[in-house]
Amino acid sequence: MPKKLLSPESARDFLVRRFNNQHENWLAGEGAWPLVVSLGAPTDKDIAEDASAVRTWAFAWQSRGGPGEVVFEERQFARFGRHRLPVSLSFANATAVATAVGQTRRWETATERYQQMLNRWPVLAQSKVLASKFDVLADYTPEDFERLVTLLTWLEANPDSGLYLRQLPVEGLDTKWLEKRTGLVAGLLRSLREVTVDDSDFHTLCGLRKPAHRVRIRLLCPALRERVGGLCDIEAPIGELATLPIEPKAVVIVENLETGVALPDVPGTVAIMRLGNAVSALHVLRWLRGPEIVYWGDIDTHGFAILDRARRVMPQLRSVLMDEATLVSHRPLWVEESSLCPNVPFDELTAEERRVYDNLRAGSWGQRVRLEQERLYWATSIETLVHALEGRTNVEEGVGLSVSPNGLCRAAQSTDG
Length: 417
Prior knowledge:
Elements: H1 8-27, E1 35-38, H2 44-62, E2 69-77, E3 81-91, H3 94-100, H4 104-120, H5 134-139, H6 142-157, H7 175-179, H8 182-192, H9 202-206, E4 214-219, H10 222-226, E5 233-237, H11 238-241, E6 250-254, H12 257-262, E7 269-273, E8 292-296, H13 301-313, E9 318-319, H14 324-328, E10 335-336, H15 351-362, E11 369-370, H16 378-397, E12 399-403, E13 409-413
Helix pairs in contact: 1-3, 3-4, 6-8
């Protein structure tokens, strides 16, 4: 059969693609109707070359059932006379198309729920946010859809409740259900409030109480541990950590949790672990204002972004094991960074740090080079880290630090001669 002649099967494939591409627009009331699909027109040459194929094509459309109107026209051919042939397939509305592609139930459910929500909140008709949630409208169970509507109704009526998620008085609502749908709820809520640009997080947008940010630290100094009842490894809301009766002489911030957990005892020192971009929250820790602070993160573009963010709240912070020498001496351990950090000014980086960052972005050493903190050899890395801390602890406590062959640090009282 000539390729320009559209068979019923090919027409259905076309309609499936059209439905998948346009169903959200159609739900919002857009689209030109009727939708007319041209079936092609055979020529004298087509009939001469394969009359049987053209006859089979025409018969397939003559015997076709289902939604959509097949339009036929009389055609005159110079060599073969006059014949009645199919020319187009026409659909009056989106419902007919949905039926033709086996989407009747989903389309009817989505349109019914869409109209239900517009009746409750007419303002939703002013944007396509609701229509863009076609899968939600079409596929949510009745219980989930009712839960969503009830939740939006309550949040709209109580914009500043100050409640935790767990306290929301919506029947059947649980935190896991909501946590999986924060983007959906936030998008609809912004549309309800006609907010076009909103940088607030989900809790702020909904007027809910945000759980306190928790930070994990380790007190690497026995004397500091005595001040908190012997505790070493502590995870708590950062506001509570700020009240700890400690005055460390040095602080080391590490991005890798396993690295932080494995750090040995170091006099006067506290380790803070796995903060990521939340490192800026450390400004509330009053005991960070005096000590020497070093940051050890991954050598990749995101690692330097976190370093910049950290130095904004801790200007005295120094980086360790994030220099070019460390990177190039561990080439066999490199991996690939999944995506580069956006190229924005990092004003808090030193000239050396900025140079490494720029070279990473430029691909000077290869595409998306990354050296993960946890891949560095442990003993030599700890020795370098301790030396970075050593000067301040020596001055403050009269203690020297050394590293044993297995990488564990020990304190030794300084002596003369």
